[in-house]
Amino acid sequence: MSISRPRSRIYGTGRYVPSHVLTNQDLECMVDTTDAWITERTGIKERHIAGEGEVTSDMAAAAGRAALEMAGIPASKLSMIIVGTISPDTPMPACAVHVQQKLGAGTCPSFDLSAACAGFLYGMSIADQFIRSGQGGYILVVGVELLSRILNWKDRTTCVLFGDGAGAVVLGPSDEGPEVERPRGVLATKLYTDGSLAEALVIPGGGSREPLTPEALAASRNKVHMSGQEIFKVAVKNLTSATKESLDAAGMLPEQVDWVVAHQANLRILNQVAARLAIPPERFILNIERYGNTSSASIPIALDEAVRDGRIQPGHNLAMCALGAGISWGGAVVRF
Ligand code: UT7
To answer: Percent of the chain beyond pLDDT 70?
Structure first.
C-alpha cells in the first residue's frame, strides 16, 4: 500500500529591512571607493543598515510576523522555527530562540542553521522534508543577517557589498488533493557544499581556531574576509548548475520558469547565470540595487517584494538559487 505524503507549500511571506539607508555616496566619504565602481562592478546603489540597539532577532521576528499574518496563522500554531543566519544576536543560544520568544510561539523546536548566503534555501529544504515526512505542521523559515556589525568598515573590498535585513516564509502541508494537475508547493530542492573553498569567504577569528585576542581584534580577524574573484567564478558556474539540477528534479524546463528568485550578490553574476540558463534577465526578481547583498535574507526579501507587488501570482513557477561561504549552495523549484 502506498502512503501519499503531503507536499509543502508557502502560505505566507514577509520581510523587514531597517529604515536607515547607506548610499554609495555615503561610502565615498568612508573608504577609497566611488559610486561608479560599486554600481558597475556590483549593481548596488544603496543598502539598509540596522539602527543602534536593533538586533538580528528583532528583524527576523518582524519578517516572521508579516509572513504569519499573510498566512493567517497565529505564532502559537508554529511547529518549528528555522533561522538561517551567520550573524545571530549571541553565539549561544540560537537566534531562533529569541525569535520564538518575540513571536510568542510556544515551545516549538527553534534552531539556527549556518549555511551563509544559502541559509534560507537550506532552511526551506529542511522544513520541506519535515512536512513531507508528515511531522511538519506549520514551519517558519527565516533568512536574516545583520552583517553591518561583522564587516570591516575600512575594507573597501567587502564593506560596500553587504546590507542588513530579514525575509521569511511560512511553509505548511499542502491543502490540495491528488486530483490537482499543477499542484502548488516546493517541487524540488538540491543542496551542495564544497569545503575545499572554506577560506575564500570566512570570518577567521572568534571560533575555536582563533580565539579572540586584542591583536586579533585589532587585525579585524572577527570580520568578513572574502576573495571576491574566486567566489565570483564559482558562483556563476554553481548557481547555473544548481538551478538546472533542481529544474530537472522537478521535471521542468527553463522556459517554464515564470520567475527566478536568486541570491542577490552581484548583478553581473545574475546576468551571466541568466545567459547560461537561457532565461531572460527580465524574469529575474532583482533588488540588489536597493539592498546590496543581504546573504541568507536576500531570497525571501525578493520573494516577499514580488509577491506583495503582484509580480508573483499563485501558480507561478519559481526557480531559486543561492551560493555563499562554505562554499554552500543550492537550488529549489517552487510553484507558488
Ligand atoms: O554572497 C556571498 C557570495 N559572494 C559573492 O558572490 C561575491 C562574488 N564576487 C564579486 O561579486 C566580485 O568579485 C567583487 C564585487 C567582490 C569584486 O569585483 P571584481 O570585479 O572581482 O573586482 P576585483 O576584486 O578584481 O578588483 C578590481 C580592482 C582592484 O584594484 P586593482 O588591483 O585592479 O588596482 C581592487 O583593489 O578594484 C579594486 N576595488 C575597488 N575599487 C573601488 C576593490 N573594491 C573596490 C571598491 N572601490 N569598493
So the answer is: 99
